[in-house]
Amino acid sequence: MAFCFSFSSCNSINFLLISIALSLLITEPTITQAATYGSVVKFRASSWKYAHATFYGDETARETMGGACGYGNLFDSGYGTNTAALSTTLFNKGYACGTCFQMKCVNSKWCYGGSPSITVTATNLCPPNWYQDSNNGGWCNPPRTHFDLAKPAFMKFAQWKAGIVPVTYRRVPCAKPGGLRFKFQGNGYWLLVYVMNVAGGGDISNMWVKGSKSGKWISMSHNWGASYQAFAVLGGQALSFRVQSYSTKEIVTASYVAPANWYTGMTYKAKSWENFH
């Protein structure tokens, strides 16, 4: 509580408090707007932590195609073989799809000399195996943090004969050239969109769509993995999207991504600068 020793000092203090309050009311919306729509928010690497890694599939990585994130053919969607399936604890109900991790094999005779690091993108879920002990086969059982890598990725830092190796890992920014990519599924009354090639944190938490005729942003709900859906008639309109990062809360607007004659089964690319950082 502030105390006044004279009438004049009391008036001065009141004037100062009113001035500060007014300045806050004026500047707060501007700060909020900049933080969500105009500013550039860079995703920073996290600290190093410990986990374990295994691999699935063979050298061709055929078994890693598709997956719980819905990216489909990982070669066509740009992810290749440097990918990982995450344990439930890391997968975060699909919100971890697209996140990138740097890791090194440690404290094992199977690690390659020089401790080479690899960087992988999360494209799948490693489900629990409750019939196996968490320390003997049930590697992805909660609350374990575990990475099940594509075999070609695993072979870059350890001998595949190991089966499982301890690793040190950290979240890192995703280096994805070009803009966001949107793969369309659904029908004329239900648009399902898979968001790919997400840079920065790699993850998304919210999404909106706007048709060129309606001119209104429609909130899309999370379906599963990296897909979002809108129950609306959007045919015959050029479509724009707003995508929000799960990690940094930054929002990127991709304008007129799809032409008015868009159709499902196609992947549409945003402009090269319409991506996270």
From TrEMBL:
Chief place where the protein resides: secreted
Family: Belongs to the expansin family. Expansin A subfamily.
Domain Expansin-like EG45 residue range list: 66-179
Domain annotation Expansin-like CBD: ranges: 189-270
Protein name: Expansin
Signal peptide: 1-34
Membrane topology, from the record: Peripheral membrane protein
Functional note: Causes loosening and extension of plant cell walls by disrupting non-covalent bonding between cellulose microfibrils and matrix glucans. No enzymatic activity has been found.
GO biological process: plant-type cell wall organization
Keywords: Cell wall, Cell wall biogenesis/degradation, Membrane, Secreted, Signal
Localization in the cell: Secreted, Cell wall; Membrane
High-level lineage: Eukaryota, Viridiplantae, Streptophyta, Embryophyta, Tracheophyta
InterPro entries in the record: Expan_Lol_pI, Expansin, Expansin/allergen_DPBB_dom, Expansin_CBD, Expansin_CBD_sf, RlpA-like_DPBB, RlpA-like_sf
Pfam families: DPBB_1, Expansin_C
GO cellular component, one term: membrane
